[in-house]
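Researcher: Structure prediction, please.
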Amino acid sequence: MTRILLYTGKGGVGKTSVAAATAVLLSKKYKTLVMSTDPAHSLGDSLEREIGSEPTLISNNLYAQEVNINDAINSHWKDLKEYLTALFQYQGLDPISADEIAILPGFDEAAYLLYINDYVSKNQFDVIVVDSAPTGESLRLLSFPEVMRWYMDKIFPISRTAAKLARPLMRPFSGIPVPNDAVFKSAETLYDQLGNIHDVLQNPDITSIRLVTNADQMSYNETKRAFTYLLLYGYPVDAVIANKIYTDDTGDFFKGWRDSQTRIVGELPDAFPDINILKSYLQNYELLGEEKLSIFGKNIYGNYDPFDVFYKGKPIEYIKKGNNTVIKIELPHATKENLNVYNKAGELIIELKNWKRVLYLPQTMANMEPQDAELKNGYLYITLS
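Model: Predicted structure follows.
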């Protein structure tokens, strides 16, 4: 079974170094791929190697990859892209612009996920370490499968039926491109693969998401928000890594920083209950190359094996109470001012600030309406009846 470790955090917290160090450590025992999904790739710099858009052998058991979006789209959705390009050209765009705009929003997120899905389905690696984009982009990456599922469930069947009816009528009289079966097949394949990787990423036996933060207030606040949003989407978080902590020998000039960091590090166990809290200290050299990354990784994990699952929680539970069903969702840093819950056509919709999750209710619960929603001790309780 392939293990997936995904590292994310605010830009500049050092997640690439942490991910690369983790991969170097793991490669001592496992066939390991470290993959960058950050458009501003720096993984090659960290490993001091040129890395391609396909897995590149770095050393024994260690492979690295910086995904090229254009290559990914051409290999996975060529038919879909060709149709969109033709459609945009019909609308008056020049061929170059039409080709560029045919890469729709979300395709890049899907490309990363499909690579992971391919490697997992083929059992190509023992462990995949994902050096993810900064927090906001990572959340879009992880929420994309559900957005795509909604689109395919609601829009795709209508679009396909309409296209089949319109195709013989429109061809003799219009130059408007009409999608053929290959286009729809491409979209269906995308849908199936995203559904599969969505299940894999939500399985705590396979996937662990690890949040990298610095011990400063801005990074700490963003990490708490990211933790809450990840739990909203049902993703398993098993560790927080506090990075770039100043050591006591950094002198009086940094005393204020050390005091602030000590306070924030002391708050981490309460802010992230049950999950593993790891600490790494600011090094006096650049973390470049396998040797330095290996030392850095040992300092982070100590006696822990980074391959292990550090914590298995249940972000979402369904609890039967008489004729009612209570949905219990872990949302440790949510506030009721930013929360909205409602049922729309059998879909339970939870809005938390700028993020929205659609929970597809079982058929037996599709007609239930939320009667009560309460935030209590870091959990959201939604009563359906």
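Model: The chain has two domains: 1-300, 316-384.
Researcher: Thanks, that helps.
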